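Entry:
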Amino acid sequence: MNESDNLSLLSGIATLLFIIISFVEFRLNTYLRRHYKDITDDQLKQRWHRVMGIENQWNLFSWVFILALFILPDNYLLLISCILCLLETLVTQRMDNLKRQMANNE
């Protein structure tokens, strides 16, 4: 395998991870929106609004990175894929922490 093949393989793996994490994010988003009415603590409601605001902004901003994957040269494919995975993971982690707090608050 040459360097180009290695980069393509790593980019493919990063893209696959992004898709998997996106699926988890979608499920968390659905859960959090469905259970918003069950929140009784005002501080937890504020946290919900903050986390979901970040989620909404990230959903819009991630499309910039996704479109960049198609526009930019292949040299940037691995870098953009890794940035997408990292940011998607951070947003999903915040959502998961919120879900745990909601479960503990019930």
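The longest helix spans residues 3-34.
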